Amino acid sequence: MPSPPERRALAIVLTALLIDTIGFGIIMPVMPDLIVDLTHTSLSEAARLSGWLLGVFAAMQFLFGPVMGGLGDHFGRRPVILLSMAAFGLDYLVMGLAPTYTWLLVSRAIAGIAGAIFVPASAYIADITPPERRAQNFALIGAAFGTGFIIGPAIGGLLGSLGPRAPFFVAAALALLNCAAGFFMLPESLPRERRRPFSIARANPFGTFKSIARHRGAIVLFVAWFPWILAHQSYPSTWAFYTKLKFAWSDQAIGASLAYTGLVMALAQVFATPRVIPVLGERRAILLGLTSGLIGFVGNALVPQGWMVFVVMTFAGFQGLVYPSMNSTLSKAVPANEQGELQGGVATMLSVSAIIGPLLMTHALAFFTGASAPVHFPGAAFALAGALTIVSMLIVAFATRRSFARWAP
């Protein structure tokens, strides 16, 4: 059982993640409308432009994510988490005020430099949690994200009736209030004696992977994880565009579908993960999660009616097993004073996929829904995601057996 100090610290950092995710979820239903409003283009072309926004953000994370992880190992997790909160608050504010598409690009680049909050938050949880409970606590990160995507998109869909910019101002207020609360309530998790000197040679994308590569078997786990992370970019990069183009959904309907998906994911994380992973083991849990995700991708690619999306996403709920199982296994491969660096490496992998993924997914969507499309197929991005998931499944099934066995309890 976790100790009372561990429970308190865990509750505070998960609440911070929840509020930050609510802010992100609020803007998702209205992003297509804002881009169309600023650029005066078709919805298909707006999807392509949205991919560049996501790619710029991810490119900055790729360059600076390891720096944030290294700074967390040197200065502690708290200041890095607070910086991330503040950066996202300012980003939402600028996006809400943006007069042109270029402003959106610049704003996304600045937010990407500060990095996503999950990087220092994951290291924070690794600091306060014994190895045997890390999978369960990492699953709570997924639950926080899932809960945020229940509340955020639902609010965003309703706020969309006030105009495409209103949700951005609400998201900015939430993120900045979250930062203020964290300043007074969030304790430091990394004692001074466990900190390490900051090294610019290690605090870069390539230096991070070079350092992680010293730990035998870690790289093959990253290779197994990457196609899945790439596939999962189909949801944030195309969902709002896909549902508008295929089902002509309103902002409210998009918000409701995202909220339902978040609910299913959160329930799976809270109730299934703590029970499934100890029984199946982390490797089999990953394979189950990947299979569930494959059902979601293929189903969304092919369903002919909007109500069927909700059925598909119900069966896709167990995909949430992948992140905690894989992250827990990787966390056992490095010592305590390199957990921040490891999470920086995870962030780097996520950033590479988030540079490539949105461009692949939005261009696939735009190509198969544009005026010159050889066949109208709004589900093209999800079909591509399904193929990538199969690749990840094959790697986990046949190439990572020894790596998982090495760190099995």
Keywords, please?
mainly alpha, 409 residues
Helix coverage percent: over 70%
- Structural class based on helices, strands and sheet pairing: mainly alpha
Number of strands: 0
Radius of gyration: 20 Å
Pick out the low-confidence regions: none
**Count of runs of 4 or more consecutive helical residues:** 18
Biggest pleated-sheet summary: none
Strand content: under 5%
Which overall shape is indicated by the principal axes computed on the Cα atoms?
globular
Overall pLDDT level:
81
What is the distance, rounded to the nearest whole angstrom, between the alpha carbons of the first and last residues? 17 Å
Order of helices and strands: HHHHHHHHHHHHHHHHHH
Brief summary:
Helix content is 79%, strand content 0%. It has helices at residues 4-27, 31-39, 43-75, 77-97, 101-114, 118-128, 134-159, 166-185, 205-212, 218-232, 234-247, 251-280, 282-302, 307-315, 322-331, 339-369, 380-399, 401-406.
